[in-house]
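Section 3.1: Structural characterization of target chains.
Under the original work plan, the team committed to producing a structural model for every single-chain target entering the pipeline before any wet-lab resources were allocated. The record below documents one such target. The sequence was received from the expression subgroup and is listed exactly as submitted; it comprises 446 residues.
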Amino acid sequence: MIDVDAARALMADSLGFHIIFALLGVGLPLVILLIEQLGLWRKDPLILEHARRLSQATVILVVAGVASGTIISIQMSLMWGKLIEFGGPILGLAFGWEGYAFMLEAVFLAFYVSTWGKVKGWKHWLIGVPVAVGSFGSAFAITLGNAWMQNPTGFEVVAGKVVTDDALGALFTKTAFYMISHSVAGYYLATILCVLGVYAFYMLRHRPKGKDRTAVQTIMLRLGATALVFTAITATLGHFQTQYLAQSQPRKFAVIETVESTTRQAPYIVGGEWTSDGKVEGGVKIPNALSILTGNSPDAEVKGLNEFPEQDWPMLFVNILFESKLLLVALITVIPLLFVGLHYRKLGEAAGGWRYSTPMLIALLPLGLIAIVIVELGWMVAEFGRQPFVVNGYLRTSEAFSASNGIGNWGYIFPILFVILFIATATALWLLFKRKGKLRPAKGLL
């Protein structure tokens, strides 16, 4: 069992690193299209130069994402071969699609980056569209497979293996819709806030003037407004996903929302904690709120953890991760809202020049990092909440483990590789963006 625990920890660490590269690789193509579109509308070559520079950063991050994904695929084959053996007829289809989506993204990204100044105007912008489609497709395919593992349907188990006549039907479920839409929207939001933070840093360090300052401010406003749109989309999808979770995965929902016993008129408990014996201690109770949020009625029944045998309980600290996520979501909502709100004439006049003041720029700096932490917490809730199963209700994590022994002896190699990859990627990005003074537009972009 020691090797299984080590393998789980190792996989969690690897995915934690990979998700950073993956979400930026998914989100940056959309951000680049937004900025290039802005430059074309305004016929501003300086804004187009910003888009060009970001496209170069995307190449670096895609390469890093491929490297980290390769490391994870090696781990899967070495340690979790029984998962592939069990769910291959369904998971193989999703993983295959991911390969095609990445090929689409990679080919058009190379074309897009190499044709700045050669293919101009909206024709060049259109070349970037398949890049965004391909990056979305990669996230779509991988999350599609994970959604099936969270709530598996559409198959029979024969001799310990999945048998299905409709792999598509098994993959395309309501769970898949909510997980894909919510997670991808979160990737876009996190990437937008990361780029917004980069521009805040640029403003603080270089104090641009004239056309450079105008271009940066225009980009920052576009990013801030788009961030608010994706915040609203992500929050709305998250609400309906949570409602569906109460029906589709009540065991996980009970742990997330600290529901000790099945009840109607269930309160929403803020700050409650689980004890090791499945009891809830502390917290502030809001009467009827959970039943209303879950079933749109105070009389809606909410299943409690008491409905499930203790050996099937998820990790009980999941509710702390979930509440931490909600707290951080509030933070990344309020600051962009204030930033965008200050651009309205009356509010902006009342606040003077505060919208690009040092305190506001400092407040914008960490939003991208916080959003990445939110994405990490969201996936931790999803994965830890599914335990002790790797395919929920069918295949336990201990049963999916296929390595013989010795993970503790050689498993450290993978974290070292990820640290090296992270440092190399960060260094490459720093060298790319390291510039003194204002950014100057390259010739021939319009």
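The longest strand covers residues 156-158.
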